[in-house]
Amino acid sequence: MTEIIKLLRPQQWIKNLFVFLPLFFDRHLFDAGYLVPCILMFLAFSMAASGIYCFNDIHDAEADQNHHEKRNRPIASGKLSKATGYIVMLVCFILSAAIMCFINRAVFLVVGAYVVMNIAYTLWLKHIAIVDVFVIAVGFVLRVLAGGVATGIHLTHWIVLMTFLLALFLAFAKRRDDVTEFENSGVAIRKTANRYNLRFLNTATSIVGSITMVCYIMYTVSPEVVERFGSPYVYLTSIFVLAGIIRYLQIMTVEIKSGDPTRVMLKDRFIQGCVIGWLLAFALIIYCL
To answer: At 28, is the secondary structure helix, strand, or coil?
Structure first.
């Protein structure tokens, strides 16, 4: 059972919290009529994502055996067979579909698109430089879209743009970690490793990080946002966003530990403080003031 749990990678479910963003920004986070379908959407998306992780581990089992960390994965290590992996994958997809039956039909299209895109990513797209990171970013946008579709909340162009840009920034940072390991060990973690180099990735992350910050500031000071939230102080939350981005750049370039954004989020106190500070400040402004 322990190995099956590892195969599901529940720690990665933190990414699926993006489905709650539409509720948060639309001020319906504490409305049960919106919260319940969103929680169901989170569970459904998590099951679908775990199914994809199973497929990825089955497909990449041989390649993972040559990686110093991935070789410990249940299938790569031989602790679980590929047949077991397929069974677990099928169960995950069935559970995801069953949960979505309690939401609405539209969410099947969003989650279905996510599954198909990620299967294509595992089989082909992850071997195409630049396309690979854009696919990852689109996956986060689909998470936000799933939250909007599940609750009937219309997504603004701001939330789509910021989600895409932030995910793209994290994806480029992750690739930089892969390239650093490739240059140090000579072992390519990914086939695209030789299509990137540190100079390019440093430039790409700096550009995307800067655009993300500018986009967020434009969002906070835009007349429509000020009118919507009834507060001119949303821009103050930019402090936490800027601190978080700069800290992540430090982790990427100084500590060289940006290979797993989820691990960074779960372990780095500074990043956690930025996220908590942002959430509390934003919640105070849009819910209380």
So the answer is: coil
Under DSSP, the state recorded for 194 is G
Residue ranges of the chain with per-residue pLDDT less than 50: none
Beta strands in the chain (DSSP E): none
* Cβ 76 vs Cβ 57: under 8 Å: yes
Integer Cα distance of 56 and 44 in angstroms = 19
Contacts of 265 (CB under 8 A, 6+ apart): 14, 271, 272, 275
- Per residue in 186-220, pLDDT (tens digit) is 656 666 767 888 889 999 999 999 999 999 999 99
pLDDT of res. 141: 97
Global pTM reads 0.91
CA angle 159/218/25 to nearest 5° reads: 35
Length of the chain: 289
